[in-house]
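During data preparation, a discrete fold description was generated, as reproduced here:
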Amino acid sequence: MKVLLKYLIPSMAALLWTAAAPAQDGGLYNTVKAKLEAGEQVLGGTVSTADPEIYCAMAGAGFDFIWIEMQHSHLNYTDVARMIFACRDAPAIPFIRVPDATEGDIQKATDIGALGIIVPMVDTAEKMENAVRFAKYPPEGRRSQGGGQYGAIWGGGYRQSANDNIMVIAMIETVEGVEAANEIAAVEGVDVVFVASSDLGSFSGGRQGEPYYEGLVDNVVGATNGAGKYLGGPSAWMTSREGYNFFQAPGTNAIIRAGARVMLEDADPCRFLPSGATPVQGEDPCP
């Protein structure tokens, strides 16, 4: 968590965005995709509450993108549309983990301005083929051109540039998904293959560090690298595993707790230490 907090210390430029910033008129404006193409790692903070103020705080805190959680939350598309629009010029790019790879879910997610579609529970290549088709305009896909707030967020050139900016992420969470990893990673239009570490353990019965579990992870890593796609995982793997580019950070509750603890420790270094302990070697012990 300390590594994560260090990553999140934002510059003033990242915090002081302005609602008067000019709209995009085409080109590559998905800064997550641009950073990945430049060989950088990207980190997304997870939001599962409908409060626009919390979303705005996360979107301006220094994350590269916001992982808007619609699979495991009560959020609906009206909630998320309001959140995204409230901070439409924030530095973090809106990504949505949709409940499933249905045409309706992906249509709504892209119409409200998401530039990343995160697909959970991917067991087959067919699921990702459908996800890509639903996320992209013709000729690459079958996304319908209708109403939405995407134009107000990304500008008048959105229709011509959307296919180049929208990213599609496949989450592999099951043994079946691992077995199909080569086919999933090879789907044209899939940008990132994400190792869902906790669910992979839940579905497989394995634990991190055990040969069986690590063998499953290695299979996904090999398939992703072989297909030339980006590899994703939890933020805990940022410094413990090599080759990963795309990370999900903890949710707002965990970040608030961690931030409060840092603030309290700064105010009183002895607050969480037993009497007689030393906050820093060589200093006086806590009373």
User: Anything to note?
Assistant: The CA atoms of residues 61 and 76 lie 24 Å apart. The first helix runs from residue 2 to 7.
